[in-house]
Design goal:
It comes from Atopomonas hussainii. This is Pyrroline-5-carboxylate reductase. Residues 6-99 form the Pyrroline-5-carboxylate reductase catalytic N-terminal domain. One of its GO terms (biological process) is L-proline biosynthetic process. Helix content is 56%, strand content 14%. By secondary structure, it is α/β, with parallel strands linked by helices. The protein has twelve helices and eight strands. The two termini are 34 Å apart. The relative contact order is 0.11. It has helices at 13-25, 39-49, 57-61, 73-83, 102-109, 140-151, 164-173, 175-192, 197-217, 222-229, 235-245, 248-270; strands spanning 6-9, 32-35, 52-54, 66-69, 92-95, 113-118, 128-134, 154-158. The longest helix is centred in the C-terminal third of the chain and has 23 residues, at 248-270. Strand 2 (32-35), helix 2 and strand 3 form a beta-alpha-beta unit. The chain has an eight-stranded mixed β-sheet with strand order 3-2-1-4-5-6-7-8, sandwiched between helices. Bound molecules: NADPH dihydro-nicotinamide-adenine-dinucleotide phosphate (NDP) and (2S)-3,4-dihydro-2H-pyrrole-2-carboxylic acid. (2S)-3,4-dihydro-2H-pyrrole-2-carboxylic acid is lined by residues 98, 169, 173-174.
Length: 272
């Protein structure tokens, strides 16, 4: 489908990142509509992206090829149950919600084609990475449609088991926050070492960008790139030793396990 119409249900952080990325990629404003109960949110989205907005989810989904469910998991059941009678045959549901399984969406929406997707907010800059899982009703054309949507805002990969979406959340869905935390901490520490806050922030952010770009394009892994920065007896060695002795690897593993466990817990609590 060359010019699909896409309705966003919920126009908050994640929807805005996707909308911004789609428009930057060349989607037309008249292909997109966003529905949200918040008047301020609708004004912001209309002003920022010049797309149609509404507070009526039923109006948003009428005629849409793809319906992106981008509300908080806590309201997903009510949103879906209200939306179910408004859906037409052939529409593809793309849910970006953490912790809401396909089976729950099918229970609330009926016999629908669902792609469960875990994107991340760098989609706004078309630097997103998404994990996708399709239920059995998704046709090959609809798979291609989901790929067109998420491919417009970054890269994507399909997982063959739905449970792996929780692992995707732990790595990349929530992952930007881990790197932002690192940037905050490096900025603070740089400022304490005497740099201006602005300079410390610039150095930290561009270092993150450069390291990621280098790691993506290198023909060796991150461990080898790290070793190449770490001169024996030099400065980096002291920093890395401090991280290792402080248990950074264990901490990262624990954090990601807790993240995935929370997604599973949400499925128990909110998916009924
Ligand atoms: N933020 C992220 O980095 C990521 C988020 N996600 C998923 O995206 C989803 C949305 O998260 P996020 O964008 O951060 O949350 P936000 O709160 O920023 O956005 C959700 C929006 O939905 C609106 N909303 C509430 N009720 C309804 C309704 N009945 N109909 C339509 N819209 C409604 C909310 O309005 P109001 O505020 O007035 O309630 C809010 O504007 C979540 O399910 C989350 O798991 C996935 C990947 C990454
Ligand atoms: O924190 C959350 O629950 C959402 C899902 C992944 C990123 N943000």
């Amino acid at each position: 489908m060359s010019s699909p119409h896409i309705a966003f249900i919920g126009a908050g952080n994640m929807a805005s990142s996707l909308i911004g990325g789609l428009l930057a990629e060349g989607f037309q404003t008249n292909q997109l509509i966003a529905s949200d109960p918040g008047a301020e949110t609708r004004s912001r989205v209309a002003e920022q992206f010049a797309i149609a907005t509404t507070d009526d989810n039923a109006q948003a989904v009428a005629g849409a090829d793809v319906i992106v469910l981008a509300v908080k998991p806590q309201v997903m059941k009510a949103v879906c149950q209200a939306l179910a009678p408004q859906l037409s045959a052939g529409q593809l549901i793309v849910s970006v919600a953490a912790g809401i399984p396909c089976a729950s969406l099918e229970k609330w929406l009926g016999d629908v084609a669902v792609v469960r997707c875990m994107p991340n907010t760098p989609a706004l800059r078309r630097q997103g990475v998404s994990g996708l899982f399709a239920n059995a009703r998704v046709s090959s054309t609809q798979r291609a449609l989901a790929e067109q949507l998420l491919g417009a805002v970054g890269i994507y990969l399909w997982v063959e088991q739905e449970s792996l979406i929780d692992a995707v959340i732990a790595v990349s869905g929530s992952g930007p926050a881990y790197f932002f935390l690192m940037m905050e901490a490096m900025t603070e520490a740089g400022a304490k070492l005497g740099l201006s806050r602005a300079d410390a922030e610039k150095l930290a952010l561009y270092t993150a960008l450069g390291a990621a770009d280098m790691a993506i394009h290198a023909d060796v892994d991150a461990a080898e790139l790290r070793r190449r920065v770490t001169s024996p007896g030099g400065t980096t060695e002291q920093a890395i030793r401090t991280f290792e002795e402080g248990g950074l690897r264990n901490l990262v593993e624990q954090a990601m396990n807790n993240c995935a466990a929370r997604a599973a817990e949400m499925a128990e609590q909110l998916g009924q």
